[in-house]
């Protein structure tokens, strides 16, 4: 599970990453990454729950889009859980202040975690390589 401060939740955050970020597509997913400080959350905004430390300039945040095209609710939630688990382990690869949106494609339904991990790694490699 991703900690609360590492999740994208607001529509504006998703829109910012989708419009300004780099994109890399694979057979099962599309990854959008807005690198660097411009991708961080509004520094004046604090986390709403009392136990949430709130976003910081250094945090890398992630959000997920799994539409009904992927499958019924059971399938969508399984895909989202798989992606959350895989992204959590890969967030340290990204520069501080980055934001990630992972959009699952219909082909993600029923795929193994290994397949999703391979596609996710390939997308991250492509985005990070384009940054250089």
Molecular structure report:
It is a single chain. The chain is α+β, with helices and mostly antiparallel strands and 132 residues long. The protein has helices at residues 11-20, 73-90, 113-131; strands spanning 22-25, 29-34, 61-65, 99-104. It has a 4-stranded mixed sheet, with helices on both faces. It is globular, with a radius of gyration of 14 Å. The protein starts with 10 loop residues before the first helix and ends with a helix.
Features:
Ribosomal Protein S5, domain 2; 4-stranded mixed beta sheet; 132 residues; 3 helices; globular; alpha+beta; 36% helix; 4 strands
Mean pLDDT: 84
What percentage of the residues does DSSP assign to strands (E)? 15-25%
Radius of gyration: 14 Å
Q: What is the molecular shape?
A: globular
The fold-level CATH name of the domain at 1-38 and 59-98 is Ribosomal Protein S5, domain 2
Structural class, from secondary structure content?
A: alpha+beta
**The first-level CATH class name of the domain at 1-38 and 59-98:** Alpha Beta
Which sequence of SSEs, written as H and E, runs from N to C?
A: HEEEHEH
Low-confidence stretches: 38-55
Outline the biggest β-sheet: 4 strands, mixed
- At CATH's second level, what is the architecture of the domain at 1-38 and 59-98? 2-Layer Sandwich
N- and C-termini, Cα separation = 30 Å
**Strand numbers in spatial order across the main sheet:** 1-2-4-3
Annotation, overall tally of beta strands: 4
Structure annotation, total helices: 3
GO biological process, one term: tRNA 5'-leader removal
Enzyme class: hydrolase
Pfam family, one: Ribonuclease_P
GO cellular component, one term: ribonuclease P complex
């Amino acid at each position: 599970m991703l900690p609360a401060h590492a999740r994208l939740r607001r529509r504006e955050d998703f829109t910012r990453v989708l419009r300004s970020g780099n994109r890399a597509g694979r057979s099962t997913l599309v990854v959008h990454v807005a690198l660097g400080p411009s991708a961080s959350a509004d520094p004046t905004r604090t986390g709403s729950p009392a136990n949430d430390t709130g976003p910081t300039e250094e945090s890398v945040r992630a959000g997920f889009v799994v539409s009904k095209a992927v499958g019924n609710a059971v399938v969508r939630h399984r895909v989202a859980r798989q992606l959350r688990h895989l992204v959590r382990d890969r967030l340290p690869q990204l520069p501080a202040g980055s934001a990630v949106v992972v959009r699952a494609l219909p082909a993600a339904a029923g795929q193994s975690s290994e397949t999703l991990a391979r596609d996710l790694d390939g997308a991250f490699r492509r985005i990070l390589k384009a940054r250089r």
